[in-house]
Amino acid sequence: MAASISVKPSTDEQPSLRRSVTPWGSFSWGYSDVGADIFVGLGLVLGAAAGASNVAFLFAGIVYVCIGLAYTELAATYPVAGGGQYFVFRGLGDIFGFIAGWAVLLDFTIDITLFAWSCIDYLSKLAPFLSYTQHPWTHFWVVFGVIAGLATLNIIGVRESSAFNEIVSGLDVVSETSILCFGFFFAFHPELLQHTMQHFWPTPFNLMNGVSLAIISFVGLESISQAAQETQRPASVIPRTSISLILTILIFALSYSNLALGMQPWHALPLDASGHQQQLWHYLGNEENNGAAVAVLASYVPYFGALAALYVPVLGAILLLISSNSGVFGSSRIAYAMSNTQLLPSLFQKVHPRFRTPAVSIGVFSGVAVLELVFAALPSVSPGVHEIYRRLFRGEDGITFLGDLYAFGAAASYSFVFLALISLRLNDSQSPRKFKMPLNIPFTYKGNPVEFPVVAVIGFCGIASILVFTMITHEIGRVAGPLWIVLGIIGYLVYRRSKGLPVFRSQPRNWRKAQIGILQEAGELELMDTYLANVKAMEQRKAGAGPKP
Amino acid sequence: MKRLVHSEGYARARLFSAALFALLGLVIVARTAGVVGLNASGLPAYALGGAMVALAIVRFRDYFAARQKT
User: Fold this and answer.
1) Which residue blocks in A160-203 are alpha helix, DSSP H?
2) Which fold has domain A23-161+168-351+359-448+456-499+521-527?
3) Confidence of residue A17 (pLDDT cuts 50, 70, 90)
4) Which of A194, A197, A255 sits opposite B48 (nearest CB)?
5) Is A263 helix (H, G, I), strand (E, B) or coil?
6) pTM, two decimal places
């Protein structure tokens, strides 16, 4: 044990989360969040990237694997609930921690609206009066009701139970695996896939648009960190469940896109508006079906399709509702955590006197979500606004508007996470990493042995290119995304100045003490001992008496 | 739910799904190779098949590691 650091039982009186999540619970937590994304992403990407949709998913999928590995390493090393915001805050300092957290908050608010919107789209396949294209006002009010209902439930403090998450995730994994098996074994034709790819290859602009939308199928890795906070021995459990989660999500995204391009539908598709035959991918990507593409695809799968047409819309809607709820829950908790570290005003820490929930945060960010809903729904309910959107934003529909912003927020926050990982590898080499991203270059930095993560650089280049694609191809994301960040930074600077806090610099913090507390609280006592030994060795090296790296 | 997840039946179900994914992955790779060959247009399908086989390997490894422990 290091002589210079004493370890005392935590005297912090703040209540902490109970660590009762099992490996399966940890998997299903992530799955119910990220697994819902393909239900939204598939139709949008097919509509944009056409015959190259599978390539768009592959590109975004490779970047996602890098992001997933980064989150796995960071969540196992720092098992706290803040996720990307915490890692950036710790690795890059206060102002970047704020920007990353603010981008995550944008994503959480979009998450609320986009998934509530898509949840109703899926239900409309069974209840046509909810259809966005045919009854836009009904659709708008029902989505609004879902958001208001979720906000109210979160203020009261009702949250879906972990067991409910686990059951829905389990059913969905079985369901999706069945759809893929029936699809690939009985209706998949590689020659049709090749034909579609050759004849319906998009323009470079549309391909970039497709890639930037494909990343929304892989958003929600914050849940890995949230699960880490509530998992016993997270350093051992999180890597195992995360790798399985990453592969499962990747497989489903790649499978659906390849099936959509290369599957012969079991029964005839309806003719398009001009009376022509249409291909499955085209049918799934049109405005009527792009919000519920997985359910529509499932209904055209041989043998299983008739059954799938009945239950996939319901299962999809439940999964999307859980994901929407995680947006309400996540945004309020991130805002609460940012307020705790004086990145946001203390207003966001206010808890409801009766229900003991962060009611102000929930109210504010649910309000932002409603505002986004209004902007997304306006073109469908008002012909005048539709004309304005057509002229200014290439006629983007509601769900694409939300997808634009979602892609921007995700790409922005993930970019910072890669930089934070590199910074933490260099500046916090003492923290033991039970899981490390592969491909590392060992060298000595400031007298300490460190490993430079090559995969983080690859991932950063990938996500930065997706951010550039988003800025190039998304008329709304290009304006509204940066505007959100700029307004946030202005608010941050004003707040920090008014409180007499460092504006551009970071407040001094005792990260060693924090890390000991984190490992102790997680029950990772062996890792804590290793950390203390590493710190001692580093101090000896600094004093010139210790072992050479 | 916890009891179900720790049961032998659940472990076998995971093993079965691993075998299914491995088979599906190999079928996709073989069928794509038969039509497309070593062409770039087959890359997404090859990646999908590879990911399925990788997931199967992870699950097989988990299963046998758990069996060795018990």
Assistant:
1) 162-186, 190-199
2) Amino acid/polyamine transporter I (1.20.1740)
3) very low
4) A255
5) strand
6) 0.89
